[in-house]
Structure formats: C-alpha cells, structure tokens
Structure to design on (237 residues):
C-alpha cells in the first residue's frame, strides 16, 4: 500500500467551495513487487473525506470522524490505524521526489488529450537542471482544490513530502493552472519510478456509503504498544 500512496497522495491547501470528486487512474511503479504493470486505482473525495480503492485493498480517511481505516477485502476485515507523527515513523521524506524549494517548473509546449481533457506538459528540474518530474496539467484549477484540501488533512509519512511539493506548485508552478492528469517521477539516473495516468475525472455527487465500513466486515484490533514499539504485555503477566 505504501507504493500506491506514494503515487497518488498529492496534497495541499486552497480556499474553495466544497465539491465531490471521483478519480480513476492507472499507476505504474518501478517496484518489482508490483510487476511494472499498471494498477487501477480509484480515489473518491467528498466533504473532507477520502476513499481509496485498488487491487490490494482500500482505505477510508475521514479525520473529522477519527477514521483512518484500512480495508482488507479478501478477509472482509478492517483496521483503524491511529495518526502517527512522520518523524516517529522515519517516513518524513520520500526519496525520488524533487525538493519543493529547489524545483524549477517550466512548460515544454507539448500538449496531449488525457481523459477527455486538453493538457500541457510541465517539467520539474533540480538546481543542476536535471529533470526530476513531469506533469500534464488540464481541466479546471478548481477541480484540484477539494482533492488536495482533503488529502492534506490526512497527510503523514510519505505523503508529507508530496504535500509540500503540491503547495509549492500551487503558488508558482503547474498546479495553479489545473489538475495533474498524468505525472511521472524520475530517479537521479533519469529512470521513471512512478507513473500515474488519470482515465476518469468526475465531479458528480458522491454517495456517502463510500465512507462507511462495508457490511459484514470484522474489525482487526491493533495490539497495544509498549516502550520500544513492542506489544504491551497484559497486566499480571
């Protein structure tokens, strides 16, 4: 799930009217465990809540309701994971992502049609001029606002670096102009590490059932953690 979150969780803040959004996208990761094959992922956003669905399971993030739920569809089980400080997990920075304060964004003039929208390519370079990322921007700038606002409330771990990147791009980069309908992250050698392509972008109202635990699912309790991150022993043992 970590690799999927790496590819999808772009976040930030922007004042706008609340809106619903459904995004279907294909994510290809260089991670060999995913087979370098596109994996379909659906992201549903509504009223500060986010639902993610992919082949490995699902997730419901609703901070106002204290929900950060992992769904295990094959086992029909779920687990509510507590919010954790990124510094405590060692995941405060994501390798392979361009640093927001050192990234220079520029248009290339290349255009394409993705998910029915006209898009324009932007590339992000580091201080040495090496390309680290590319995004194809299209649709309306307002569409992205609810998406990034919702995810920013749940930002932790690898998501935090992406939050910083999106915020920087909103003020002086590509994200002030529209939604990233395609994005590619490159490593230091110029090899693509993660590619995300949107196949559907829909702002129709979202049914609230998407943010409820599916019927028949049983809760899997996390063990209480003691000092050093080890499960705490019950009293008397």
């Amino acid at each position: 799930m970590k690799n999927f979150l790496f590819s999808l969780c772009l976040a930030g803040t922007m004042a706008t009217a609340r809106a619903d959004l459904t995004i279907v996208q294909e994510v290809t990761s260089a991670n060999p465990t995913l087979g370098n094959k596109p994996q379909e992922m659906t992201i549903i956003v509504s009223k500060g809540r986010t639902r993610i669905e992919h082949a490995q399971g699902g997730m419901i993030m609703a901070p106002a309701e204290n929900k950060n739920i992992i769904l295990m569809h094959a086992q029909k089980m779920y687990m509510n994971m507590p919010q954790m400080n990124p510094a405590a997990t060692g995941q405060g920075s994501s390798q392979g992502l361009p640093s927001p304060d050192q990234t220079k964004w520029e248009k290339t003039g290349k255009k394409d049609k993705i998910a029915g929208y006209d898009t324009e390519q932007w590339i992000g370079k580091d201080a040495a001029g090496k390309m680290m990322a590319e995004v194809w921007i299209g649709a309306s700038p307002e569409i992205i606002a609810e998406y990034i606002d919702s995810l920013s409330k749940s930002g932790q771990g690898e998501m935090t670096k992406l939050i910083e990147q999106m915020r920087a791009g909103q003020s002086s980069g590509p994200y002030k102009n529209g939604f990233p309908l395609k994005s590619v992250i490159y490593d230091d050698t110029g090899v693509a590490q993660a590619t995300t392509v949107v196949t559907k972008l829909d702002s129709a109202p979202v049914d609230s059932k998407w943010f409820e635990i599916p019927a028949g699912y049983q809760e899997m309790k996390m063990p209480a953690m003691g000092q050093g991150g080890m499960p705490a022993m019950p009293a008397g043992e």
